[in-house]
Amino acid sequence: MAARYEAIRAFTESLCVTLQPEDYVVQSMPDASPVKWHLAHTSWFFETFVLEPAARARRAPFTSFHPRYGYLFNSYYVSVGARHERPQRGMLTRPSVEEVYEYRRHVDAAMRTLWGELADGAHADLIATIEVGLHHEQQHQELLLTDVKHLFAQNPLRPALRTGASPARGISGPELRPTDFSPFEEGLRSVGHGGGGFAFDNESPRHRTFVEAFALADRPMTNGEYLSFMAAGGYRRPELWLSEGWDAVQKQGWEAPLYWEREGDHWQVFTLHGLREIAPSEPVCHVSFYEADACARWAGARLPTEMEWEVAAESALVQGNFAESGWLNPRPTQVDEPARGPRAMFGDVWEWTASAYLPYPGYQAWAGSLGEYNGKFMSGQMVLRGGSCFTPASHMRTTYRNFFPPSARWQASGIRLAR
Question: What is the Cα–Cα distance from 143 to 255, expressed in whole angstroms?
Fold first, then answer.
């Protein structure tokens, strides 16, 4: 665990190596956070939920790195105390970037001291919390990337986070076969996390559910297919849209996925490698649930439920295009022969499901303040599955339930059809 801690903390900082100090401070919208805040918040988590309880357990005095950091870098833990409002995080010109990195070094040094105390295995509660903290930091690695992408997209210079080898030019992928649909029989299935290895509380308990017969597309929907939806007037046909989705189209002026820009009679897309031509065979990315639902309806299909998705993915290996590849962009699915089952279930793009984010039968939130982690958000959100090109590979599992409001587009979210 000590080695994993060091690797995960280092990976977070490696994502920032090309940033300038000014890039760390700005908040591009209320749902995003400055890079500096992500770096400090993940350190605050270990300080608050691991180091301070460890000091209490040995009846030792505990002094936080800074008496106001708990207020600045708490996210949504009401039970821990008051906090700086999320939309105002971009106003925090202080602490400086250098001071935030000093904070990280302080917490890392204290954690290195703590490993010796945990070696006898007598502190199972702290070890479990550290495990949560590691996955929490990996969540913020993904958020850091999506938030930087949104930030850079607001800049007319269209800066790139990564240079060199990129998906930027002349890479359109193989000629894709038409979508195949893999059939799955009806039946009583067991879904959810069954123990063994880490999982968040919202993935449990494992339970039975009846799944009707269905078929799932062998790959995610591509940019080229989405362009056909657009060319068919998809954004101008209210009969394809849920009421709230149509309202969003009208109010927000949607006419393409987020980060697509019209250049004459064709489209370009902004990526973390900069602005480049649309690659037709890449999975379409940065669409809302409303757009995914409307496009599925246009295609004569629908979105899968999260139970259908999990049933289809249960025999698949958790491998794909994740953050560690450094590509930081969806890759074309390699489809050169008829499908023997769904492909690319993991990585590239999070896949919207038709399921509302709700508790499983018998769900119990974690005890204490960490009980606020997932359960209190089970309202007004839709479930996504499978991870994306921004997700760390070791953070992903078949039962993982991501969730966002149906209008969210800045996450790397895409579409897989079902029937």
Answer: 25
The 10s digit of each residue's pLDDT in 175-208 is: 567 789 999 999 999 999 998 899 999 999 999 9
Q: Number of helices and strands (H, E) in the chain? A: 10, 11
CA distances, 215 to each of 14, 335, 417, 419 (Å): 41, 18, 9, 5
CB atoms near residue 287 (< 10 Å): 26
Place of tokens 């249960």: 314
**pLDDT digits over 22-53, tens only?**
999 999 999 999 999 999 999 999 999 999 99
- Please write down the long-range contacts of 160-163, taking CB distance under 8 Å and 24 or more positions apart: 160/271, 160/272, 160/273, 160/274, 161/18, 161/19, 161/272, 161/273, 161/328, 162/18, 162/272, 162/273, 162/326, 162/328, 163/18, 163/273
Pair 286, 336: CB distance under 8 Å: no
Q: How many residues does the chain have?
A: 419
**299-331: pLDDT as tens digits:** 999 999 999 999 999 989 999 999 999 999 999
Per-residue three-class SS string for 234-282: HHHCHHHCCHHHHHHHHHHCCCCCCCEEEECCEEEEEECCEEEECCCCC
Q: How far apart are CA 41 and CA 141, in angstroms?
A: 12
Q: What is the dihedral of CA 103, 104, 105, 109, to 10 degrees?
A: 100
pLDDT tens readout for residues 259-312:
999 998 899 999 999 999 999 999 999 999 999 999 999 999 999 999 999 999
Burial class (CB within 10 angstroms; exposed 0-12, middle 13-18, buried 19+) of 194: middle
